[in-house]
Design a protein that fits this description.
Length: about 325
């Protein structure tokens, strides 16, 4: 039975776990130019600690755990963690978010270890733009990674494109065609003003309404509205007729989907973050490294959930400057 119910009657069934705050890419909306990751190994939760915390969440009613980062595939022996999580009773879904750079060599093993559902960040199909946006990424390797994931049978795979005015907004239709060609879903994400990097990206904001207008114009009556699947989260999906591709938008800025929010996040250092738009967190690392019993830690989690705010506050951007970078919270 789910015991994680917040004061707004939202049932928390989804935990996003950042396994590292290191990333091989430096996307400019995710971390600011000077941001360095200096986290010491001892500060980061071990796999045993992550698995124990996830087990406690599962006992409280969480059924879905997404592995994210930083870049989760950079964490050494990540497959060992996926195996540990796969053995936790009650978890029914363990997807992973990645920039795909390491998929050419890791997709097959991930599949063997039960990770089949992926969200892949891909903001452009132009190699130079990709290099610029990610500050050094390699589009060719990313596409090889996507194709490898498809080849080994992973799915469903969702592409995530952060749409930015004047940077990649001219590629919306091309990205949909890319997704159709490979039978993938695609989601267009509004840039969120989180951390200095996100706030700097605000003037490149491209709204959900503009994105949908473009999709409507191109695909018109081929769009079939979809009932939200359990795996959709805040995305609103449209199936393109005669394809396997669903197009969706995630509009954290234009719209509040907070009323149906079912998620919380845990950073690589074990901070439980209740909402992307808030500074508050509770250290589960301190709890797990103390003499607290499992029941006491569960009580701490239940109590933290009562502090989940009703909605995120992105509108007063200046008031919302956070020292945290997206790369640390895990998206
Ligand atoms: N490295 C993995 C990846 O590339 O997907 C996982 C971590 S990344 C922080 C998770 C997601 O957060 C990505 O889809 C990324 O595009 C998104 N993201 C980061 N900063 C963002 C921002 N300011 N606004 C909207 N989405 C953002």
């Amino acid at each position: 039975m789910n015991q994680l119910i917040d004061p707004f009657d939202r049932h928390i069934t989804y935990l996003r776990v950042s396994v590292t705050d290191h990333c091989n890419y430096r996307c400019h909306y995710c971390r600011d130019e000077d941001h360095q990751t200096h986290t010491r190994r001892s500060e980061v939760l071990s796999f045993e600690e992550i698995a124990k915390i996830v087990r406690l969440f599962a006992e409280l009613g969480v059924t879905k755990v997404r592995l994210t980062g930083g870049e989760p595939l950079l964490r050494k022996d990540i497959l060992y963690l996926t195996k540990m999580l796969g053995e936790i009773p009650g978890l029914t879904d363990i997807p992973l978010s990645t920039n795909a750079h390491l998929l050419p060599t890791m997709a097959s093993q991930l599949m063997d270890y039960g990770i089949n559902r992926l969200n892949i960040s891909l903001d452009t199909l132009n190699p130079q733009r990709h290099k610029d946006i990610t500050r050094g990424g390699d589009l060719d390797i990313v596409i090889k990674g996507i194709d490898k994931a498809i080849e080994v049978g992973m799915g469903p795979i969702k592409l995530n494109m952060v749409v930015m005015k004047g940077i990649n907004d001219d590629e919306i239709e091309e990205m949909v065609e890319f997704a159709i060609g490979r039978g993938l879903d695609i989601r267009f994400i509004e840039t969120m003003p989180i951390g200095l990097a996100g706030i700097e990206a605000v003037d490149r904001h491209y709204s959900e309404a503009e994105i949908l207008e473009r999709i409507q114009k191109r695909y018109g009556n081929k769009l079939i509205a979809q009932k939200a699947k359990q795996t959709d989260g805040p995305a609103k999906a449209l199936l393109i007729e005669d394809t396997n591709t669903r197009v969706a938008t995630i509009s954290a800025v234009s719209n509040h989907f907070c009323g149906t929010c079912n998620r919380v996040r845990m950073t690589a250092k074990g901070d439980l973050v209740l909402c992307l738009g808030q500074e508050d967190s509770v250290s589960l690392r301190d709890a797990i490294r103390s003499s607290m019993t499992d029941d006491e830690i569960k009580a701490l989690i239940v109590s933290a959930i009562t502090k989940k705010p009703e909605k995120h506050v992105f509108s007063s951007v200046i008031d919302n400057i956070s020292n945290r970078q997206m790369v640390e919270i895990g998206g």
